[in-house]
Amino acid sequence: MKILTLDNTCFSLNNLPEELEEDVRFSVLDNSDPNEPDFFFMPLIFLESFSSPAIVLDIGGQEVQMPLDWNLAVGDSETGMDVEILPLTSIADRGFEAFVFNPLTSGKPDFMPVRVVNYYNDVKWYFPKMKNGQLLAVPVQDKHNPKCAFFIKDVSRQIETIDYGKLF
To answer: Which of 15, 9, 14 is nearest to 27 (CA)?
Structure first.
């Protein structure tokens, strides 16, 4: 799994050293209070590890691999209204567009087409510990200043939509 760091780069959690020499922070979209969604950089203090099936997505021509039981923030480029959070198992060939944004440099969000490329039975995952309602910014490009899609493990009814107007 990849995260967006404060220095605006893509950081892979699969190849971590035993100890990090510097303060690493990762980007989240905090929707724990739906009336005040905002972007934050949280310190990387604790990693969770688990094994689960994976889904490989094509987001705007770039491949992203995520746990199958996670959810993705999607929207509509034509209306640009609310952003909804949908299970990755519901994405296949339904014409959804991923909400993509770089919280450090993007002036406005984009929406990129999403399609399923592949599935894997068992993948070892490492991801940062996050609070309920926080979506992880996952870079869809392996470069400086990457666009990011937003994923979340667990969704409650209270946070299944993000008010686009309150976010920007």
So the answer is: 9
Which token pair is 57? 């997505």
Q: What is the CATH number of the domain that holds 95?
A: 2.170.16.10
pLDDT digits (tens, 9 = 90+) for 9-57: 999 998 777 777 678 999 999 999 999 999 999 999 888 999 999 999 9
**What is the phi/psi pair of residue 164, to 5°?**
-55, -40
Rounded to two decimals, what is the model's pTM? Answer: 0.94
Q: Is the residue at 76 inside a domain? A: yes
Tokens of 40: 């934050």
| Number of folded domains that form the chain | 1
Residue 18 lies in a domain: no
Helix (H) or strand (E) holding 97: strand 97-101
**Cβ 75 vs Cβ 135: under 8 Å:** no
Backbone angles phi, psi at 157, to 5 degrees: -60, -30
Report if residue 19 sits inside a domain: no
Tell me if 134 is assigned to some domain: yes
Task: Please count the CA atoms within 13 angstroms of the CA of 9 that sit on its side-chain side.
Answer: 5
Query: 19: how many CB neighbours lie within 10 A of its CB?
Result: 5
